[in-house]
Structures are given as structure tokens and as C-alpha cells.
Design brief:
Blueprint lengths: L15 E2 L2 E2 L3 H7 L1 H23 L3 H21 L3 H24 L5 H26 L7 H6 L7 H20 L1 H9 L1 H6 L4 H28 L5 H9 L3 H26 L3 H15 L1 H7 L7 H6 L1
Length: 309
């Protein structure tokens, strides 16, 4: 049983029991179709980037970018922006933070982990301050921090679903257009630079794509769990195959099943959708362990384990 959001109440059935709406699977799909449509786009978007994230060991970088979104959220709330404006501000803020982290880390004056940690806590502090100021300046309901942290299917509207598919299409086109230098750099950075691939440009491009992907995934999975969508599908796929085309295909399949299965579990168990999606993806990753042991009986470690570890 799920207590429905007030904004959706006019579309919900009137039969109640104990103060809760009785919603069938068909009614659930109709009520939350925007979230399901956005979920498919997020699954595909994160799956294709996940392979590169695991190969380049950028999981903590993604965590830093995702938490940087708090700063963009604070700015958008202070300005009172709508869905499209909020996405633009948060995405721009995350891209800026990602590029700054990459640029400072490349200068080697400060370790990458330290730079990421500084930007992470600084952006979260900025976001908390700006949100508090916006509540005072713009009277109204306080922001749902649980939704920001762990995602909410109810928060996804038609504009969010459209933005998710636009970003997904843009990232896919970009990856297809730059597939040769990008994949060469991802698999062997040292050799790619010797062959003229601009490594720093590829890194900045990947940072920008990760930033917009994280912003899109935040509505569904929340700030805390968005990065998991950019790690688990690729890590699972790299445990099962070493060939590039099967790896991307497996990553997309695992991501789609994990996202849709997690959303279904969220409905049935009345739990946060982001947590359910990530739990499903973790189960997929854990299920590959016997396969990995069979392929590598000596160590039980392969490409996916090494890259994720």
C-alpha cells in the first residue's frame, strides 16, 4: 500500500483502507508513467557511461560530482526556478565542479582524493546554506531532504522524463562520434597519447557527460545513490566479458533489469526507489561472483573486479 502524493490525488482511485490508497499495477504504471519512462532513459544513459567509469576508476570522482549537486540545488531553489531551469543550473554547476576537480588533480599539487573531498563537502555546505536562505526568502513547504538524498518516483514529471531522454540521446551521439579516441584512451591512456589522442580533452569530455548523467539520475536515485548507477552495471558486465561490444550490451541489459525491477520492488514494498534500484544492481553484481571464480579459479579476480577494486 502506498500513500499517494497530493499532486497525484486527482488521478488516484477513491477506494481507501486505513488511510491508504489501494493501487493496482496498471494504475501504478499510469500514475507514475513519467518516472518509468525516465527510469529507462537513466538506465541506458548510466549503463554506457558505467563501463568507462569502472575502467578509469572514477567511482569516487562520480561521488564527488553527485554531492556537488547540492550547491546547484541551493542556487536553483534560491532563484525559484522550474524543472528545466533547475536542471540547467544543477547540471552546469556539476559540470563546472567536475572540470575543476579534474583540472586541479591533473596539476598534481594536491592528491585527487583530497581535491574531491574538498569540493564534496564545500558544495554540500553551500547547498545547505542556500536552501536555508531560500526557505526564508520564499515562504512555502520545506524541501524533502529524503527525496533529494534517496530519490522519489513522485518527483519525476513529464519535463524530467523529456530531459532524461534528451540527455541520453545527446550522450549516446557523443559517445558514438568519439568512440575510437574515447575507448582507446579508456583502455590504454599511455598508448593513446603516443598515438595523438588528446587525453586531457577526453577526460574533460567524460567528466561533463558524467555530470549531466548524475543530475538526470538524481531525481530517480537521489544524490547519495546516483553514483551507484554509474558503477554497478559496468562492473557487472566487465566480470562477465572482456569484449567491448558484449560488455556494453550486458551493462545496458543489467541496468534496465535493475532499474525496472527496483522500481517494481519499490512499489510492492513501499520503499525508496533509488535504494531498491541499487539493491537490485548489487544483487546482480554479487551473482557474478561464481562466474568469475570459474573463469579465474586462482584469484577470482578479473577485469571488472580489478577496475572496481
Amino acid at each position: 500500500m502506498r500513500r499517494l502524493h497530493p499532486a497525484r490525488a486527482t488521478r488516484a482511485p477513491t477506494t481507501t483502507r486505513g488511510g491508504y490508497e489501494r493501487v493496482s499495477i496498471g494504475e501504478y504504471i499510469r500514475l507514475f508513467s513519467d518516472g518509468l519512462v525516465a527510469g529507462v532513459a537513466v538506465a541506458i544513459l548510466c549503463a554506457v557511461l558505467s563501463v568507462l567509469v569502472v575502467l578509469k576508476r572514477l567511482a569516487f570522482m562520480g561521488q564527488g560530482i553527485s554531492h556537488s549537486a547540492f550547491g546547484g540545488i541551493g542556487i536553483s531553489m534560491l532563484l525559484g526556478l522550474g524543472a528545466a531551469g533547475t536542471f540547467g543550473v544543477v547540471a552546469g554547476f556539476c559540470v563546472l565542479m567536475g572540470l575543476c576537480i579534474a583540472w586541479i588533480a591533473d596539476r598534481r599539487t594536491t592528491s585527487a582524493d583530497t581535491v574531491i573531498g574538498v569540493f564534496l563537502v564545500g558544495s554540500m555546505a553551500l547547498g545547505a546554506i542556500l536552501v536555508s536562505i531560500s526557505v526564508r526568502v520564499r515562504p512555502g513547504p520545506a524541501p524533502g531532504w529524503e527525496d533529494l538524498l534517496f530519490g522519489s518516483l513522485l518527483a519525476v514529471g513529464p519535463a524530467d522524463a523529456a530531459i532524461a531522454w534528451i540527455v541520453c540521446a545527446a550522450v549516446l551521439v557523443t559517445m558514438v562520434w568519439t568512440r575510437r579516441p574515447l575507448l582507446f584512451w579508456a583502455f590504454d591512456e599511455a598508448s593513446s597519447e603516443a598515438f595523438g589522442v588528446p587525453g586531457q580533452r577526453m577526460k574533460f569530455l567524460l567528466m561533463a557527460m558524467l555530470a549531466v548523467a548524475i543530475v538526470v539520475a538524481m531525481k530517480l536515485a537521489g544524490v547519495v545513490l546516483a553514483t551507484a548507477l554509474l558503477v554497478l552495471p559496468g562492473a557487472t558486465a566487465l566480470r562477465l566479458s572482456r569484449r567491448i561490444v558484449p560488455v556494453f550490451a550486458i551493462s545496458i541489459l543489467v541496468s534496465l533489469i535493475g532499474v525496472l525491477g527496483g522500481l517494481a520492488a519499490s512499489f510492492r514494498l513501499d520503499l525508496p526507489p533509488g535504494a531498491c534500484v541499487v539493491a537490485a544492481l548489487v544483487l546482480f553484481f554479487a551473482a557474478t561472483w561464481p562466474v568469475e571464480r570459474l573463469r579465474h579459479p586462482a584469484t577470482g579476480r578479473g577485469v571488472g573486479a580489478d577496475a572496481a577494486g
